[in-house]
Amino acid sequence: MSKTLSFEEPIVKLREKIEELEEFTSTNEVDLSDEIEKLKTRLSNLEIEIYGNMEPWDRVQVARHPQRPTTLDYIAELFEDFIELHGDRNFGDDAAIVGGLGRFDGMPITVIGHQRGKDTKENVKRNFGMPHPEGYRKALRLMKQAEKFGRPVICFIDTKGAYPGKAAEERGQSEAIARNLVEMAGLTVPIISIVIGEGGSGGALALGVANRIHMLEHSTYSVISPEGAASILWKDASLSKQAAEAMKITAPHLKEMGIIDEIIPEVLGGAHRDVQKQADAIREVLKTSLHSLCSMSGSELIEDRYEKFRRIGEFTE
Questions:
Q1: Is Lipoprotein found in the keyword set (predicted)?
Q2: Cα(132)–Cα(159) distance, rounded to whole angstroms?
Q3: Is 57 exposed, middle or buried (0-12, 13-18, 19+ CB in 10 A)?
């Protein structure tokens, strides 16, 4: 059963009312079709009103929805002949990052992304989508391989952040992330990153130094979670709603500031409502981005990436 988010409660209650009337009609000789149609019309209008006016904290909840499509869900919908590759050739394999080879509309590509689970067992296996250093080193190995064979790199970002545990720090978590930033900046092949859920801190940025950065409409991209920011600023994690509003972590805010290139509209209610339809929307954006980037030379791609990040923010003397 799909999780009910707090702002969705009026919609859920109205749906339940419609289901009750439909069940009553089917089991009794009473025609309530007119009333049911009126309620369905009201439901449709209510969905448009609520989903069309979501606040930042509402979007955070949708980005964290347990049934929200993951990297592997989109890979299955978007790419043909996908072959997953494992390991960093140094320590081991990290299930919190998946990657491999595939084809997009016949074009060979390398695809890499954070991978979280949809239930407790899978989340434990995937470390809740929080990579260890070997995950980032696996990602970098695949990126360098893509550069060697001239394949575009497509990254899916969906993590609360890099894993902060002792073992991760001992194996060089900060160095692994920093290495990815440096190497991605200089890759001579197109890089496209898409934020599909939460994009948290350096753990997200390690797959985010791209020529084009796109975001699903209800995703978030930030240096810290709203709860973390509230704890630091006000010593009270319960003020996370206010923090989410102040941090400007949603797609519309980030587009306005020039941090991302394009917002990918989501199906009504969120991507988890219709994975195939959501993948179709991503496909169109990927086609456009690849078409513009694949005509550039290696040096032009590096310069394009450099200028993109130089334009972010304001400089004062």
A1: no
A2: 12
A3: middle
Q: How many residues does the chain have?
A: 317
pLDDT in tens, 239-250: 999 999 999 999
Exposure class string for 74-101: b at 16+ Cβ within 10 A, else e: bbebbbeebeeeeebeeeeebbbbbbbb
H or E segment and range at residue 231: helix 226-234
pLDDT digits (tens, 9 = 90+) for 159-200: 999 999 999 999 999 999 999 999 999 999 999 999 999 999
The whole-number pLDDT of residue 313 equals 79
Rounded CA gap, 268 and 276, in Å?
13
Closest by alpha carbon to 157, among 243, 96, 107? 96
Output the CA torsion sign for 199, 201, 205, 211.
positive
Q: How far apart are CA 173 and CA 133, in angstroms?
A: 5
Q: Write the CB contacts of 36 (distance below 8 Å, at least 6 apart in sequence).
A: 18, 21, 22, 25
For residue 125, the tally of other CB atoms under 10 A from its CB is: 13
Of 232, 207, 118, 133, nearest to 174 by C-alpha is 133
Long-range contacts of 65-69 (CB under 8 A, 24+ apart): 65/3, 65/5, 65/270, 65/272, 66/3, 66/118, 66/119, 67/2, 67/3, 67/118, 67/272, 68/196, 68/197, 68/270, 68/271, 68/272, 69/196, 69/271, 69/272, 69/275, 69/278, 69/279
pTM of the predicted model as reported, rounded to 2 decimal places: 0.89
pLDDT band at 132 (very low <50, low <70, confident <90, very high): very high
In whole angstroms, how far apart are CA 70 and each of 79, 118, 261, 278, 288?
14, 9, 21, 12, 22
Looking up tokens 């032009």 gives: 300
- The residues, any chain, with a CB within 8 Å of residue 269's CB and separated by 6 or more, are 8, 47, 51
